[in-house]
Here is the input.
Amino acid sequence: MSYNHDDELMEIDKKLLALLDERIHKVSTMENEINEEAYLQNVISNYNGTYSKACVLKLLRSLFKESDGLTDCGKEKKMLFSREYKKSDSIVNVGELRIGGTDPVNIFGPCAVESYRQTSSVASMLADRGLRIMRGGAFKPRTSPYDFQGLGEKGLEILAQIREQYGIAVVSEITAPEHVELAEPYLDVFQIGARNMQNFELLKAAGRTDMPILLKRGLSATLEEFLCAAEYILAEGNQQVILCERGIRTYEKSTRNTLDISAVPLLKQASHLPVMVDVTHSTGRKEIMLECARGALAAGADGIMAEVHPEPVMALSDNKQQMSFAEFDNFYTNLL
Here is the structure.
């Protein structure tokens, strides 16, 4: 590079740095007035430059993050999940669905993807009822190493086929950082399960994507620990995080776990992130799932998760807690 070209580049960078200083000052005068995600989407929709939109989005998010750190110098840092950082509710967009909006968005499906036929049967039933999103596990972390562990990438391929055939968004769990790149082409939402809530390398890897993340509360996690796990994702730049209460372990044995209904309003008070409730894993008892789901919605949940299978008795995992189609019809009809 010649001296003249160095000078030209230097002048460009000086102007760029001056604009960055001006931007930081402007952001500091607009505290809590910016809907960051709406603003970023508006900018991206009007950008037709050289860089990819994903690259520009990542750059702008990092600028917001750095601006917040600079304007908060000398004060206790505001956590990105907190109402202090953002007062308005966050909306996570999954296709045309708005999780965290005025209407609940419910996610149903089988515990595990066992075959194309089984998963397609559930997807067809859900689509017939107007539901546009489903869950299904391709990677299954289990208590025993001898239990069904899922179909892995084959399960992801089945979910992608289902998405194409039925026009339905798909949610599935990833369990390791390397799954992020592997699973991204197949899925619409990454789920990080209870057993991986504090898998920090996985949280950070998920935070470096633009994929919506459904984060489940750990088996014995406090709400503070749960929110701090979400912070790991947010701190990497991914603001598309959904919290999911799925029951915690207590001394009570009459249910699989203990559904912490109080977590819903407490999380909503502390955080702007959407909150869902999984009534299958929290209770493990089909005969009380409807009442628990109603309670969760009454407490302010943004949606319900539950499991349904065409033949629960034949299911390869959690066969006692998955609803049959007839049981699901009764559940869903009375939930509306």
In short: The domain at 92-335 is CATH 3.20.20.70 (TIM Barrel). The chain has two domains: 3-71, 92-335. The beta strands are 92-94, 97-99, 107-109, 133-135, 169-173, 189-192, 213-216, 241-245, 275-278, 304-307.
